[in-house]
Amino acid sequence: MRYENTYDPANAPKNLEFVKYEKKGHVAYVTINRPEVRNALHTYAYLELRSCWRDISNDPEIYCGIVTGEGPAFCAGRDVKFLAKHAGDGKRTPHEDPNSPTYHWGGGGQPQDVELFKPLICALNGFAVGVGLSIALQCQLRVMADDAWIGDQHTNVGRLGSPHEIYQALPRTAAAFLTLCNGRLSAQECLQLGIVNKVVPRDQLIPTAEKLAEMIAMGSPLAVQGAVRLYRLSAAFPASLTALARDLDQQIAETDDGVEGARAFAEKRKPVWKLR
Q1: Which helix (H) or strand (E) holds 257?
Q2: For residue 80, what pLDDT is reported?
Q3: Given 2, 41, 55, 237, which residue has the most CB atoms within 10 angstroms?
Q4: Which of 79, 93, 13 is nearest to 50 (CA)?
Q5: Is 76 contained in some domain?
């Protein structure tokens, strides 16, 4: 028996505060919309992003998505000031608190959190660090503004993040430079290393991404989604490694140094590490 698709367009995410979401033809546009904090992500932005990824996955008329950021940055990673405020009150952020209905360790705002098998094009309008880099690397195609850059920055604030995913997605020396040294890669370096497909002036970013979307839409949607499914499976980690990575991330986040990193960032000073 074949069940008909029960997707209802009326249930698409709407009235979002931290993300812009729209559809044009067969393309969904996701724009992180917190420019006042360089599109840093907190609990509620994660929730909105997850609702968009889920809708892209469910809507049979959407063949691919374009992901970008509002303003001069793509995404500054997690909102460390949001984190520091909660830590200063002796509390976990809602998405890190197992007692919260919004609990999802790591935030849950990444495409992989809903097992999205439709292709995404990342339009890197500005710098991408931390979870912003993770989102970019989970897109199958990437177009980058010529003045943009990428980085990790987790260890700068006493966090671990997901270095194994960066190590798998990037050339290993480049990944180590980002995760261990908190280095940066320019747009031209990203192009030379094969991390992005194209580097263009900022005003050509979305039109270039849209050209790629048009090329995707010419193919069989089922075949394209099958390819994305295989891409993701070929890059998947063993369950034991994924569990260890999450456990280490949580352990390190809840150390004194994890709290100190966020506090030092919020206070704009150099952190004092105590190794505990």
Answers
A1: helix 256-266
A2: 84
A3: 41
A4: 13
A5: yes
